[in-house]
UniProtKB/TrEMBL annotation:
<keyword id="KW-0808">Transferase</keyword>
<keyword id="KW-0460">Magnesium</keyword>
<feature type="active site" description="Proton acceptor">
    <location>
        <position position="179"/>
    </location>
</feature>
<feature type="binding site">
    <location>
        <position position="112"/>
    </location>
    <ligand>
        <name>Mg(2+)</name>
    </ligand>
</feature>
<dbReference type="GO" id="GO:0015940">
    <property type="term" value="P:pantothenate biosynthetic process"/>
</dbReference>
<dbReference type="InterPro" id="IPR003700">
    <property type="entry name" value="Pantoate_hydroxy_MeTrfase"/>
</dbReference>
<comment type="pathway">
    <text>Cofactor biosynthesis; (R)-pantothenate biosynthesis; (R)-pantoate from 3-methyl-2-oxobutanoate: step 1/2.</text>
</comment>
<feature type="binding site">
    <location>
        <begin position="43"/>
        <end position="44"/>
    </location>
    <ligand>
        <name>3-methyl-2-oxobutanoate</name>
    </ligand>
</feature>
<feature type="binding site">
    <location>
        <position position="43"/>
    </location>
    <ligand>
        <name>Mg(2+)</name>
    </ligand>
</feature>
<keyword id="KW-0566">Pantothenate biosynthesis</keyword>
<keyword id="KW-0489">Methyltransferase</keyword>
<comment type="subunit">
    <text>Homodecamer; pentamer of dimers.</text>
</comment>
<feature type="binding site">
    <location>
        <position position="82"/>
    </location>
    <ligand>
        <name>Mg(2+)</name>
    </ligand>
</feature>
<feature type="binding site">
    <location>
        <position position="82"/>
    </location>
    <ligand>
        <name>3-methyl-2-oxobutanoate</name>
    </ligand>
</feature>
<dbReference type="InterPro" id="IPR040442">
    <property type="entry name" value="Pyrv_kinase-like_dom_sf"/>
</dbReference>
<dbReference type="Pfam" id="PF02548">
    <property type="entry name" value="Pantoate_transf"/>
</dbReference>
<keyword id="KW-0479">Metal-binding</keyword>
Length: 270
């Protein structure tokens, strides 16, 4: 079973690692067969599974249920699980809810935010709960951002993001996840923390790992599809097309062919 030490080792060796969202046992088993390195039980299930238009309605109970389903079927990948909206509004709630998700089978919890969560990160870490810190575009704050938009597009904003990452790493954050930021910012953050694996989704090719929503990379998403998504089902056929698509994604990440230039935000910071 892959663990946090393995992700750190991958980074030191320059070996990229793959991550996909997953919410059910059958898909978790396929990801085990494909040797996906890490699984995120994301609160994105609010949209992909429950049909909501955001992640906000997802509950801790939902996260516990789906984490249990995934863990039963996959004994290979490192399992991360989101704490949903308002589940970590204070340190007491964060500890209580993280305990539930960890007992369901997660090896790490993910929370969204910035430097103001340093105390929460410190408390979770001191209690033996590894934390992945999600920065950049954070879907739980979509109403603050005014929609799903690229973040840290200026030099000042990029420096501010880097400073927040530093505060959170100093507080104990074990992994950073960057969403929807210029490729240059993804590289700067990954380079700044040699002992902290950095996962990207729309954060360029230079982060240590890549994550996609599984429905997106299988071409199941209707309507607008984010720039950073590639449909790995588009060249598959036959009875094992889904498994082949997941395996192709895994190898594309490791071989550094995904993301390609067209799946990244090439924005000059000014």
């Amino acid at each position: 079973m892959i663990n946090l030490s393995d992700l750190r080792r991958f980074k030191k060796e320059g070996r990229k690692f793959s991550c996909l969202t997953c919410y059910d046992a059958s898909m978790a088993k396929a990801m085990e067969t494909a040797q996906i390195d890490s699984i995120l039980i994301g609160d994105s299930l609010g949209m992909t599974i429950q049909g909501h238009d955001s992640t906000l309605p997802v509950t801790v109970r939902d996260m516990v249920y789906h984490t249990t389903c995934v863990r039963r079927a996959n004994q290979h990948a490192l399992i991360m699980a989101d704490l949903p909206f308002m589940a970590y509004a204070n340190t007491k709630d964060a500890l209580k809810n993280a305990k539930k998700v960890m007992q369901a089978g997660a090896q790490m919890i993910k929370i969204e935010g910035g430097a103001w969560l340093a105390e929460t990160v410190m408390s979770l870490t001191r209690n033996g709960i590894p934390v992945c810190m999600h920065l950049g575009l954070t879907p739980q704050s979509v109403n603050v951002f005014g929609g799903y938009k690229v973040q840290a597009k200026t030099r000042q904003a990029a420096d501010a993001l880097l400073a927040e990452c530093r505060v959170l790493v100093d507080a104990g954050a074990a992994v950073l996840l960057l969403e929807c930021v210029p490729a240059q910012v993804g590289k700067e953050v990954a380079d700044a923390f040699p002992d902290v694996p950095v996962i990207g989704i729309g954060a360029g090719a230079d982060t240590d790992g890549q994550v996609l929503v599984v429905q997106d990379m299988l071409g199941l998403t209707q309507g607008h599809v984010a720039k950073f998504v590639y449909n790995f089902m588009s060249k598959q056929a036959g009875p094992y097309a889904i498994l082949d698509a997941i395996t192709t994604y895994h190898h594309a990440v490791i071989k550094k062919t995904f993301p390609a230039l067209e799946q990244t935000f090439q924005i000059e910071l000014k």
